[in-house]
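tmp note - Acyltransferase
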Amino acid sequence: MGNSKRVDYLDIAKGFLIITVILCHSDFPFAQYMYWFHMPAFFIISGLLYKDKLSLKSQAVKFFIPYTAFSIIDMILTFMTSPQDLSLANIIHYSYEHIYAGKMMPGVFWFIPCLFLTKVLFHYGKKFLSTPALVLIISGLYIAGHAFVLATVPENVVDITTANYIPWNLDALMITLPYYAIGYYSKDILRFASSKITLIISGLLAISYLRLNTVFQVYYYMNIKYSEFRYYFLDLLVPLTFTVFIISLSYHLSALKQLSKISSFFKLVGSNSLIIMYLHIPLNHYFETLFTYNYVIFTLIGLLIPLGLGVLISKNELAGFIFKGINTSSSSKNHSMGFAH
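out:
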């Protein structure tokens, strides 16, 4: 299974996942179930794509040049949506929110600083610690993170206050690092994604979890941004099952020549998932001031407009650097600059 093939079907998986992210921010009636797996899956896939050679400077550029650019765009769209709010005080306030990030920042901007720290901490942990020591520490973080949440974070998201805000969602690292590590240490078992048995078993398990929740009222909920991870066992079992299912489904989709156009579309979506992530909420907030629509239109606006912009951005080196963090000297080596890279 070649590296290019692997990246192709992982891009397809990211395409599926970023669409679930959009749906979760709409009025889609089944959004709560997508929170079970989509953010853990992005961290797991990022771990799968981890490479030993990591430059802190290049990572900072790749993550935070686009973060800064899209923060400015986000503020522009915010003031276009609510022009009466335009003031120097609000510009300063919104800028502070983007810098602080985490739970303070509405939407998905929390993800980028959190992924950056996850990636860097894992890299230096791997560099300076033995594998057993690193695994032991990350396992301890997983346990400590759950204990911390159970002791300090309100069970209902709406009850979370500024007292629970931590810069860059540092508390979430206690679960994102384990997911990232799971992805990295699972690289050698990726070959099982090509098995139809893997697809069938993971799919049946995923359906069974949904049935347990909807029919038998077995409650489960996860939201990494708001530190809602409370189930020591289920927070591994449920996200991992769905992630394996989505990766296996993506592999089999990529192998079907009859569906090559569909797989190419999802691959394109996955490789532009970063731009889609940044823009789907502010764009919809603006269009919602012009007319009323449901989750289908919300998803189409949040997907197709950023996707079109992503394609245009890819045609210009400067735009690629500003909005995708692509260094032209290394862009040929990184053909897929998506959400989980």
